[in-house]
Design goal:
The chain is mainly alpha-helical and 286 residues long. The chain contains 15 helices and no strands. It is globular.
Length: 286
């Protein structure tokens, strides 16, 4: 089924993705991984997100994460897998997600009909995702679907998020943007991670950030005060359009009615999570 509204899939993703990504800003991920022997927050993030691919090396993690500096990744991977195996990391991840969603949505929320319905819709959409050239999606697709509806929903949101993300990285590479350049242009749009959060979490120095901004200015993508130029705006718009094209299959498979319903349900759940403090106030912005 072809969606009449080409942006319907993107709108759905915008409320599905936060259900997956809330774990990366939660105390639960640090608490559970620390109990498993991984006390460094960035190492916990790397373990949680890379584990579906197995005990991969630093190069694979840098390639698939794209906007993280290889230096900070190589300081942790593959040594990380000596502390926690991928299988243990996956078990710990699901335990952290369970604790998080119960805190954000409450016991009645995780057991609600809305969560069960959202899980069914998201899993149906994910049936049309493809493994080819999508390593993070493919790794998660090989994992069993959890029985509990709220965990099945998180798993399905993870599949949809990583499927779109893998395709997005291919588009960024095709656009000739490095990981840090991609992050900087997204930040300049006002829709990406704020500069402070980039520097705190992505493993780049202030000097590297400033050099990247200067390079983007020289290319005509940013103005002297680091706003997107017309060319820069056009590039970001084209990146999103191409990403939408590569991520069309799951939403066409679900159909217009299903996409609208999943968007409604996931939107309500994301709003509830945000109201419960799932995301830092200064996360997004220039």
């Amino acid at each position: 089924m072809t969606l009449q509204d080409e942006r319907a899939g993107r709108r759905c993703h915008s409320v599905v993705n936060p259900i997956h990504s809330a774990i990366y800003f939660a105390k639960e991920i640090n608490e559970h991984y620390a109990a498993a022997g991984v006390s460094d927050p960035l190492s916990a993030y790397l373990a949680a997100r890379a584990a579906p691919m197995g005990a991969v090396g630093a190069g694979t993690v840098t390639a698939t994460f794209y906007s993280f500096g290889h230096r900070v990744i190589s300081e942790r991977v593959p040594r990380l897998w000596e502390t926690i195996t991928p299988q243990q990391a996956l078990k710990t991840r699901l335990e952290a997600v369970d604790a998080l969603l119960r805190r954000l949505w409450g016991e009645d929320g995780v057991a609600s009909d809305e969560v069960s319905e959202a899980a069914e819709l998201a899993l149906r959409a994910a049936e049309a995702c493809r493994r080819e050239a999508r390593p993070l999606y493919a790794g998660n697709a090989d994992l069993p679907v959890p029985e509990a509806p709220h965990l099945a929903l998180w798993h399905a949101c993870t599949l949809l998020r990583e499927h779109r993300g893998d395709g997005h990285l291919a588009v960024l590479a095709g656009a000739g943007l490095s990981g840090l350049e991609a992050q900087a242009t997204h930040t300049a749009s006002g829709r990406g991670m704020s500069t402070g959060w980039v520097l705190r979490t992505r493993g780049f120095t202030r000097e590297e950030w400033e050099q990247t901004l200067e390079g983007l200015t020289a290319r005509g993508l940013l103005t002297a005060d680091h706003e997107l130029t017309e060319e820069g705006l056009g590039l970001r718009k084209e990146i999103e359009r191409r990403t939408d094209e590569l991520d069309r299959a799951p939403y066409e498979h679900l159909g217009a009615t299903g996409v609208a319903r999943l968007t409604e349900l996931a939107g309500q759940l994301t709003l509830k999570a945000a109201e419960s403090g799932a995301f830092p106030q200064d996360l997004i912005g220039k």
